[in-house]
Amino acid sequence: MSSGALKTALDGVVQECVSFVGVDINICSETLMRHVSGLNAGRARSIVDWREQNGPFFNREQLLLVKGMGPKSFQQCAGFIRINPHNLHRFLSLVGGSMEQIGSAELRRCVESQVQASSLANLAGQLDTIPETLQLIIDGLTHPPGFDIRQGFEQADFKRGVVSMRDLRVGAVLTGRVDNTTLFGAFVDIGVGRSGLIHKSKISADKLPPSQRRRSLALGPGERVEVRVLNIDPEMGRIGLDLLRVL
After folding, report:
1. Mean pLDDT, residues 97-119 taken together
2. Would the pTM of this model clear 0.85, i.e. be above it?
């Protein structure tokens, strides 16, 4: 394999990983940041410069203060940007734990003891957050090392004969499983080696079960869905989907 082809293949893998898990903007390298949708070498350099001059980012909206970052670029990259919440460190201090104990039985006992001694709402108030966010932090702290929320997923039921992007046709109705959610939509594994995107504009309340219509994230990882193929871009490896219903 030529060096050019190898670089292209590696860049594709990195871009796919970045799109799937996102990047922590406070620790991400400039090189890795260039693979985020909406960012380029110049914007990545500007983000690093801003971080070095002003300290860590506390929210995504601060990206709009970075040189060269306009509303369009922000819209494209915001869903892939992760901010490591300082509430995590404050909560660890509150329960008497440390970063090194994350996932251990000892930290689990400390967290459970603190939650039992005070309600989740009271603890959230002390940390200037909401109970739902604090519960996510607690879940993350007490999961064992290497825990993956997707590990208990059942195998998705894919349509027979559709195993690659070459088999896809616009208008085809398929089933799949949500494997990631972002601010702009949900990525669905439909069995072709690339996840398709259901844009948030295609996730309307009438397509959801009543119990999911008031959730901030209408679709969650692991949910089985029926979708229709809206568009296919083989060169970029992108698939646009429309949500038909949740199975």
Report:
1. 79
2. no
Instruction: Compute the distance between CA of residue 48 and CA of residue 5 in angstroms, rounded to an integer.
Output: 29
139-151 residue pLDDT tens:
777 777 666 655 5
Distance of alpha carbon 3 from alpha carbon 9, whole angstroms: 10
- Residue 226, token pair as written in the block: 């029926």
H-type helices in 68-193, by residue range? 71-77, 86-95, 105-117, 120-126, 131-142
Residue 221 CA to residue 224 CA, distance in Å, equals 9
Distance between CA atoms of residues 186 and 95, nearest Å: 35
Q: How many residues does the chain have?
A: 247
CB contact at 8 A, 222 and 153? yes
3-state secondary structure 5-19: HHHHHHHHHHHHHHH
Beta-ladder partners of 186: 181, 198
Sign of CA dihedral 115, 117, 120, 123: negative
Contact 146, 100 (CB under 8 A): no
Q: How far apart are the first and last CA of the chain?
A: 43
Contact 240, 196 (CB under 8 A): yes
Query: SS3 of 138, please?
Result: helix
Whether the predicted pLDDT of 214 surpasses 90: no
Pick from 53, 79, 76: which is nearest to 66 by CA? 53
Tens of pLDDT, residues 122-138: 888 887 777 877 777 77
DSSP 134: H
